[in-house]
Each structure stands twice: as structure tokens, then as C-alpha cells.
């Protein structure tokens, strides 16, 4: 038995399951929850507040899943070993930066701007700064998803080779 109590293929399958679950949750939020909130809620501020409550869960679980998948896949199978370690760590890093680096800046800016971004003049530099920070946050989530997806594929391939 390995240090975490699972045989080699079991550890790879556990890592793959973690990655797949997080990818599904993050993709659901990005592709369904956020667009739905902005299309059905009466104000963009309310939709932003809803999405703002969901994203920390996605980012924190992405951080945990990335670290967990890296630990589970560490020294387990030779197939793509280094890449299977680095990719989940990139997922964790992307989520950590989004949650602890970008999100607090967005929250401070939102508090400074008041309840509605749309009420600000389009020339207000805070609107542009919010747009940049939002874009950076989306980019980090996308990078985390891409890294997790690649890690999932390589982990699944390594697991089938270790049968």
C-alpha cells in the first residue's frame, strides 16, 4: 500500500475523480450559473453578488483539488509523472491567485464604487479597472480549467497503463 492507503491505480483514479469533479463544477458555474444569473436576476449588481458568493467555493476547491491530485499522483506511475505533478499544481496556483490575489481587489473596488457599476459614468477609471480585474480573474479560472483538464487526461492515461 502507498502512503495514502491506496494502491497505485487507485491513487490515480482518485486523482482523476477529484479533477473531473472540480472541472464539472467550475464549468457549470462558468457556463451556466453566471450567465443565468446575469440573464434572469433584475440587476447586474444582484447577479454579480450571487456569482461573487459562488466563485470562492470554486477557487478554494480548485486549490484543494489541485494540491490533492498532485499528492495522489506523486511517485505513483512513470507515465507523464512530472507533467501530472505540475499541471494540478498550476490549477491550485491559478485558483489561489484568483481567490487571494484578484478577488480581494475586486471586492475593495466594488465597495468603493457603490451598489451599481452601471450608475458610474463610462469614463470612470474604476469601471475600466473593474473590467480588467474581472478579465484577469476569468483568465485565471480558464487557466486552472485547462491545466486541470490536461492533468485529468494524463492521469487517466497513466491509470490505464498501470492496470
Ordered list of secondary-structure elements with their pairings:
Blueprint: H1 8-40, H2 44-73, H3 81-113, H4 125-161
Helix pairs in contact: 1-2, 1-4, 2-3, 2-4, 3-4
Describe this structure in words.
With 163 residues, the chain is mainly α. 82% of the residues lie in helices and 0% in strands. The chain has helices spanning 8-40, 44-73, 81-113, 125-161. Helix 1 (8-40) packs antiparallel against helix 4, helix 2 (44-73) runs antiparallel to helix 3 and helix 3 (81-113) runs antiparallel to helix 4. The longest helix has 37 residues, at 125-161. Mean pLDDT is 90; it is low at 1-5.
Number of strands: 0
Total number of helices: 4
Regions with pLDDT < 50 over 5+ consecutive residues?
1-5
Identify the overall geometry.
elongated
Distance between the termini: 15 Å
- H and E string: HHHH
* Biggest β-sheet description: none
Rg calculated over all Cα atoms:
19 Å
The assembly state of the depicted protein chains is: single chain
Summarize the amount of helix as a percent range. Answer: over 70%
As a percent range, the share of strand residues is under 5%
* Overall pLDDT score: 90
**Protein structure class:** mainly alpha
Give a brief outline of the structure.
The protein is an all-alpha fold. The chain is built from four helices and no strands.
Provide the descriptors you would attach to this structure in a database record.
single chain; 163 residues; mainly alpha
Amino acid at each position: 500500500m502507498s502512503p495514502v492507503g491506496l494502491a497505485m491505480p487507485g491513487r490515480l483514479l482518485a486523482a482523476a475523480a477529484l479533477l473531473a469533479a472540480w472541472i464539472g463544477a467550475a464549468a457549470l458555474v462558468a457556463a451556466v450559473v453566471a450567465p443565468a444569473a446575469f440573464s434572469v436576476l433584475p440587476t447586474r449588481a444582484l447577479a454579480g453578488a450571487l456569482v461573487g458568493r459562488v466563485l470562492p467555493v470554486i477557487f478554494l476547491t480548485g486549490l484543494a483539488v489541485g494540491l490533492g491530485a498532485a499528492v495522489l499522483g506523486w511517485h505513483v506511475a512513470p507515465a507523464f509523472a512530472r507533467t501530472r505533478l505540475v499541471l494540478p499544481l498550476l490549477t491550485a496556483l491559478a485558483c489561489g491567485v484568483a481567490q487571494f490575489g484578484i478577488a480581494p481587489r475586486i471586492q475593495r473596488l466594488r465597495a468603493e464604487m457603490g451598489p451599481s457599476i452601471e450608475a458610474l459614468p463610462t469614463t470612470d477609471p474604476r469601471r475600466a479597472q473593474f473590467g480588467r480585474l474581472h478579465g484577469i480573474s476569468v483568465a485565471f479560472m480558464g487557466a486552472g480549467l485547462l491545466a486541470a483538464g490536461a492533468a485529468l487526461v494524463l492521469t487517466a492515461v497513466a491509470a490505464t497503463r498501470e492496470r
